[in-house]
Amino acid sequence: MAPRLSPAATLEKALAERRVLVTCGSGGVGKTTTAAALALRAARNGRRVLVCTIDPSRRLATSLGKGQLSGRPRAIEMRTLAPARGGALFAMMLDVKGTFDALVARHTPDPAARDRILKNRFYQHISAALAGSHEYMAMEKLLELTQDERFDLVVLDTPPTRHALDFLEAPDRLLAFLDVGVLRFFLRPYFVAGRLTMKVATRTGAALLKIADRFMGLQFLQELSEFFLAFEGMYDGFRARAAEVHALLRAPSTGFLLVAGPQPQALEEALFFHRRLAEKRMSFVGFLVNRVHTDPARERGARRGGRVVLDPELAALLATTLREQQVLARVERRAIARLQVDTRERPVLVPELEQDVHDLRGLATFAELVFGTAPERVAAGATR
Amino acid sequence: MLLDSLLARRLVVLTGKGGVGKSVVGAALALAARERGKRVLLVEVAAPLEASRRLGGPPSRGRETEASPGLFTLNLEPQTVMDEYVRHVVKLDLVARRVLASPIYHRFFAAAPGLKELMVLGKIMVLEEARKSVSREPVWDLIVVDAPATGHGLAYLKVPLAASRAVPVGPIGHNARRVLRMLRDPARTALVLVAAPEEMAVVEAVELHRAAEGDVGIEPQAVVLNGCHERRFSDEDEAEILRLASSGATGDIEPGVPLEAAVRAARRQVRRRKLTRFYRDRLRRSLATPLVSLPFLFRETLGVPELRLLARALEAA
Known about the structure:
The structure holds two protein chains of two kinds.
Chain A: H1 7-17, E1 20-24, H2 31-44, E2 48-53, H3 60-63, E3 74-75, E4 88-93, H4 96-107, H5 111-118, H6 121-128, H7 133-146, E5 153-157, H8 161-178, H9 180-193, H10 203-231, H11 235-250, E6 254-260, H12 264-279, E7 284-292, H13 312-343, E8 348-351, H14 360-371, H15 378-382
Parallel strand pairs in A: 1-5, 1-6, 2-4, 2-5, 6-7, 7-8
Antiparallel strand pairs in A: 3-4
Chain B: H1 2-7, E1 11-16, H2 22-35, E2 40-45, H3 51-55, E3 65-68, E4 71-76, H4 78-89, H5 93-101, H6 103-109, H7 115-129, E5 142-146, H8 150-166, H9 170-184, E6 189-195, H10 199-216, E7 220-228, H11 235-247, E8 252-254, E9 257-258, H12 259-286, E10 291-295, H13 304-316
Parallel strand pairs in B: 1-5, 1-6, 2-4, 2-5, 6-7, 7-10
Antiparallel strand pairs in B: 3-4, 8-9
Helix pairs in contact in B: 2-13, 4-7, 7-8, 7-9, 8-9, 8-10, 10-12, 11-12
């Protein structure tokens, strides 16, 4: 076996070779920043990269230092960070409704069928407003983006852990949801008869009808059955799409980076996600532990020596301040060590930054902390 | 003051960007209310690591579970809430079991977008409206809900409105409107935004505030800024720290406390407290909502003693 690469080198290799890199993790750990910084890094190394956030809270725009991102990839001007050649950076935010509409348009046989769905009230509301459709559509978009010739790497940011799992299961759930064949047997009678008169063959079916009626009411069921009937002709197309997504997520050209905070709880969640990825046979690229607090006494230049006499009050405050930060560093160090033991993976550690990252320059600095160096082509770029 | 205003309602919903410490703030708020003698229920939605762990109680396993006298936790799993509803509608146990085992149920009810969110909110409404059988007094003096992180948290709050529009008539629309009325009624519900002194958390809190008011019609009652670093050194001390940093002096200021490390730590503290001030000012400028600061805790663990500290800070606000 070849010698194992360092965690940062493994990540650098993934950025150079893979076609899809998905950043996952719980909330507030800097996933979006990481996704954007890695995308910028790959672009500076000469790849044509698209970074896409599916997070409905629209954070990517902030870290790219721009106003609102839209549902279409937009080139990001890299200015002084520009690569020597070839590389380009694009960013976009998932437009759930737009993606859903496009999906419907692609799979409907004619404009009349398309409009029947697009104008269905149930469709209009589920496609845009509700939780869940984000994940359905993110997968659809990912597939479309990887087939786009303009990009050779797509870096995908995801919502927090629990939902990131939803996201991985989205294609299967979408299929299950739209499987008209199964649903029709208790929905169609409503559509046809318009009132609650029909008989159902099984007691389970009757009970399901009862729940549906109690909970949703007749009108809802009518809308719903119209919705499903409109989807009927599209099911095969959807199934084919979902199978492609399934394959894409498990392709060797797709990798998952787990981003976590250094707190014990955040690392526990990362561990949980690591297991799930293995179960689903998805390719794990590495852990990135972000905003690690270092112990000021363990850093370079913290020499011990004779006694220094300070104002006693100031000395006491200084000592308290140091001890606090040492506690924090110790808690995090232990949690990281535990993750390492549990997973046999060495994480990439990124120390807390002096400044919040919210522009391209900050993203470049972040990447340098991850990889320890500036991108290799920057020097070449300088002589351009 | 703040606590008085929040406790005038019986439902407090917390929301904010992931990682800002929403669940810790929720537990602290529940504890603060408990210390005022209230009977409190802390509700989480599909929390992977439950608040009961911090409060020293057993895991809730989908039921109201007493963590300490008068303080209960409940971790709602949407699927369980849904199954519970099915058992409620279908009285016959055998049939209910068949429904729950049926693939149609799982494919449709479990996968229908928005249905689970609506069920969870409906369950919270049932808890809020629950009355004791004899006295007719509310079962819960206060229910604190730790809603999922912003993007999804807001999606949660948007569900009743979307559902009531998608299906104006029938039970689903009716229930969605009841939930919405509860959430929008400032006498019943207080929405609290939780943020941290960081760029993205602040941006998101401001965005969330706007969306809650504009898109959902709920006015947030307070912003909790969690993880604040306050001033520790006077101006003269800060100047002295800078001087020490540039002097290159080495040695110990106390046994085991090297000067260089302590100065480095102090400069970090100063930088963090300046960031706290910067972001607090920005929140104050952007939002007219009352703001409460909670301190960052440098602790080995986050259990009851630490939550008490935060509860006291909430009480003092």
